Amino acid sequence: MQTKPDTAPDAPAPDVPLVSVRNLKTWFEIRGGVLDRMLGRDAGTVKAVDDVTFDLARGEVLGLVGESGSGKSTLGRSLLGLVHATGGSASFEGQEVVGLDEPALRKLRSRMQMVFQDPHAALNPAMTIAQSVGHPLTIHGRLKGRDEIRAHVAKTLERVGLSPADTYMDKYPGDLSGGQKQRAVIARAIVLDPVLLVADEPVSMLDMSVRSKILKLMIDLKDQLGLTYLYITHDLASAKFFCDRIAILYLGKIVEIGEARALYAGPKHPYTEALLGAIPDPDPTRTIPRNLPRGEIPDAAKPPRGCAFHPRCPRAFAPCGWELRDLTPVLEARWAGMEEQAHLAERALIGEIPAEVMEGTTARLPAATPGGGADLLAMLERIRSEDPAEPFWTGIKEMRAEADHVAMEFHPALTPRLYAEGTTAAACHLLDPGLTHPRAAAAPVL
Ligand SMILES: Nc1ncnc2c1ncn2[C@@H]1O[C@H](COP(=O)(O)OP(=O)(O)OP(=O)(O)O)[C@@H](O)[C@H]1O
Ligand code: SF4
Ligand SMILES: [Mg+2]
Hints:
The chain has 15 helices and 15 strands. By secondary structure, it is of the alpha/beta class. Residues 28, 46, 48, 66, 68-74, 234, 300 line the site of adenosine-5'-triphosphate.
């Protein structure tokens, strides 16, 4: 069989990262409805990956963690050129991936492979396991003869624990359990001797009982074959034992990245802290804060300004990107806990709160009736005085009653950059020594 060269022909020195991602962007234009198109209206852009930068060293396992829709799969797929990045750079073994044409990408993909979440969908039900696992060898012209291919496939199946290989070679995916299928998918991914595996939630569709066995297999393979992993998961608990470093994604951006042990021991970003708080702790003597972020992940086509996490962040303050539409969940939460009469009386004073992203720092909150501006302002002042700890109010510089609306002046929205401390870095204004949190004394120190 053809042996894998130790390094690619134009490979950089070993201390150069295997993967180097700089300001990578993968944006999707959303096609609106028929009406949008007829009126020439822009339905928006989803910034699935937005200005992401990281390195991946040879032999390292980097976990990409985040809730659904945070851009994990898009980032993994952009690295392999399975979706085309909109901007920035992603180099693999020193070769730029962004902008490569399909033949060049196909060549590169023999050295970087993807393991998908769903092993049932990943294997062609009409092909035997030997055919599926051997397929990449044929496609890439690695081995010619049928016997040569079968022998290499058998060796690979043994490696992934499908042993004795003869028992599995001529079976169809439908004859295998979920765990066995995922082993076959992994066999297909390593059959070309790649150096990088992007594993996209490789165990999340498997029974609990086999998850740890598959992860253990992946660790063994990494050690035996010198692999490097980008491990995509929404599960911080599995990432803890599997990863050397972790990157936490939120709405397409890395909000925290660094050495796994340090990140678990001392999360710096409130989102990381909340995710960690959501992991059930097997040790009942340890108290873990259960401050799960309120609300859902926002619409990716209309992300919040400033720090995208601010509508859910318990520590958000003035510069975090407040805008008028953030008032809606604040009022909904308040009204949900009120008597119906009182709630309806408040609701009757306020017009429709705009749902659009705010531009600039000023906004008008319409009163429900002409001349209702003063009553609306009085209500807002009362709501603020009853719950002064609500972070939304930190974003407002000034409120003024006009005839039929309240004019609001917000603090300018600032987008946090990554602040490095020790072996981790987080994108949060709380880490900016130049900004002061209004409740600095009371707020837990990060
Ligand atoms: N081909 C596409 N066209 C338009 N939008 C897309 C496309 N692929 C992904 N998106 C959007 O990009 C965002 C990120 O999606 P992605 O699948 O990368 O998230 P994820 O973190 O992998 O989520 P999950 O945990 O659910 O797999 C989402 O808002 C998604 O709807
Ligand atoms: S910058 Fe920090 S404090 Fe502000 S909203 Fe984001 S995570 Fe919260
Ligand atoms: Mg995904």
